[in-house]
Amino acid sequence: MFKQYKWQEVVTAYAFLLMALLLAVLFIVLPIGKAINYSFTDYYLLKPHERQFIGFDNYQRIFTDDLFRKTFLNTVKFVVFVVPIQLTMALVLALIVNRKVKGVEFFRTAYFSPAVLSLVVISILWTVLLNPDSGLINEVLTALGLSPQPFLTSSSQAMYTIVMISAWSGCGYQMMIFLAGLSNIDSSQYEAAELDGCGSLRKFRYITLPGLKPITMFLVITTTIQAFKLIVQPMVMTGGGPDYSTMTILQYIYEYGYRHRNIGYASAITVVFTVFLIVVSVLIKKLFREEKA
Amino acid sequence: MKVIRKTAFYIVASLIALQFLVPMVWMILSSFKIDSVIYRDISTIYAVVPRFGDLTLKSYQELLSMYNVFRNVLNSLIYASVTVLAGLTVNSLAGYALARFHFPFKNAILLFIIALMIVPVEAIILPLYLVVHELGMINTLAGYLIPFFVNVMNIFLFRQHFLSFPEELIEAAKVDGLTEFGSYWRIVVPASLPMFVSVGILTFIGSWNDFLWPVMAITKSDLMPVQVALNAIFSDTYNIFTSHMMAALTIVTIPIIVLYALFQRHIIEGAVRSGIK
């Protein structure tokens, strides 16, 4: 059956692919297998020889674990707020700088610039800026006649603060992708609409928005998945507090599995979380397709 | 009417630009002040406008006497460079094989790569840690770096790129006596340089900015990359003043700002490309 192949070409191809396949199996497939395997055990990293098979106990525990439920709801809260806020900001920015005037490149660069900073730098910088006693932001608020806010030190405000910082740092990237989408819309459509007497609002509603739909779907999926994986900002800014109000699923896995070495239970959460993320991205895709039909 | 619209654009766009630039300007400016000056200026315009009499390198001197930040910068430069070179090699070769050669199980391998693109890497960071731990490679450079040489997204991007590479060029090279690897190395790579540069720059920035994996894989302070060191400095609230912290943030950010200034077009093109395909 392999007659149609030239053996020399086959050998070359596999030589070219070897490293990538080996590394992908070792560092992507094998970890997934291990997570599934350990999720059915009570593996404690410091006592590997006492590892025992305990069936579905870890999975049952997930559904009765109040702290897990809290971290799940925290994460959902972050996603529900950050995705629409960040994407709306990105779209508005893209519409503002989608014109050919002098200096527009400067504005694009400025809006995109936080996207190249590291999350650690952004998190530390904003923690200092938002310091309730001496931070720049509260000084500005006071100067404007508003009352200073506790921000990251309040369990009711901390997560929303992280939402705003994340949207601030990430929207420039999505703006660039929206800009690419806008430049793909056929300009003759706008000209035809103008001849028909359409105002800018109607042009936006009937040409721009539908034209951006495929890119919007892509951005909703990637931003949602990215948002579910929130960890660096709370790790650096709040450590998950105050009162666990900013602890996310990924941070919970990190705390249980890495800090407390409780591999069995953390592996079960890893499996559930990974499957959950894959299901979410498939569901969003379906949702957009159905709306299209 | 046109003038009004144009003026409105510049005013609105500038006000928005301030929201993005003020925090960074404040960071850099504050790194050249002492704390008492930072907090004296904080409610005035001088928080973000320099007065040259106030500027000093004191915070940098003090920071560097307490922490060997340059060591961490050097570590990160090495880690990021190795990741870029190895990553470009591994992923472009794989992408090239998938684009150009005919071999058994080609479609199965391609499907495998695409399936792995759905796997959220951060979500499986704990079992990845376990694999490296069981190999005895925690706190080694091999254990820290090798897992992130392969990037299935980049394999796919390289494949898409090489699919449209003109076949005649490669055939001509083979007529001239080059091997498959020879024609890849001498013809295909040079002709695809912009692609390699933009994937390489994004890989570099990603590696430089990475935090979660190094926090788990590296616990020895002399091996720490910059982001982990930054977090350690930030936690040292007894000794560290705001000016020291801003100096540390500035040191870590400067290489990225330089890269961004030099390769802005590549970075944005690369970001959009990996975003759209």
Indicate the low-confidence ranges of chain B by residue numbers. none
What is the general shape of chain A? globular
Quaternary state of the chains: heterodimer
Helix content of chain B: over 70%
Radius of gyration of chain B: 24 Å
Strand-residue fraction of chain A? Answer: under 5%
Order of helices and strands of chain B: HHHHHHHHHHHHHH
CATH topology of chain A: MetI-like fold
Shape of chain B: globular
What's the CATH H-level superfamily name of chain A? MetI-like
- Report mean pLDDT of chain B, rounded to a whole number: 88
Give me the count of strands of chain A. 0
The N- and C-terminal alpha carbons of chain B lie at a distance of 40 Å
CATH architectural type of chain A = Orthogonal Bundle
CATH top level of chain A? Answer: Mainly Alpha
Domain ABC transmembrane type-1 (chain B): 73-263
Main location (chain B): membrane
Subcellular location (chain B): Cell membrane
Organism (chain B): Thermobacillus xylanilyticus
In short:
The complex is a heterodimer of chains A (293) and B (277). Chain A has 293 residues and is mainly alpha-helical.
Question: Can you walk me through this structure?
Answer:
The complex is a heterodimer of chains A (293) and B (277). Chain A has 293 residues and is an all-alpha fold. Chain A has one domain: MetI-like fold, CATH 1.10.3720. Chain A has helices at 7-39, 57-64, 66-97, 104-112, 119-129, 136-143, 158-184, 187-195, 200-211, 213-228, 232-237, 249-259, 263-292. The longest helix of chain A has 33 residues, at 7-39. The longest helix of chain B is centred in the C-terminal third of the chain and has 35 residues, at 242-276. In chain B, helix 4 (69-100) packs across helix 8 (152-163). Chain B folds into 2 domains: 2-56, no CATH class; 65-276, MetI-like fold (Orthogonal Bundle), CATH 1.10.3720. Chain B is mainly α and 277 residues long. The mean pLDDT of chain B is 88. In chain B, 42% of the residues are buried. Chain B has 14 helices and no strands. At the A-B interface, helix 1, helix 3, helix 4, helix 5 and helix 6 of A face helix 1, helix 4, helix 5, helix 6 and helix 10 of B.
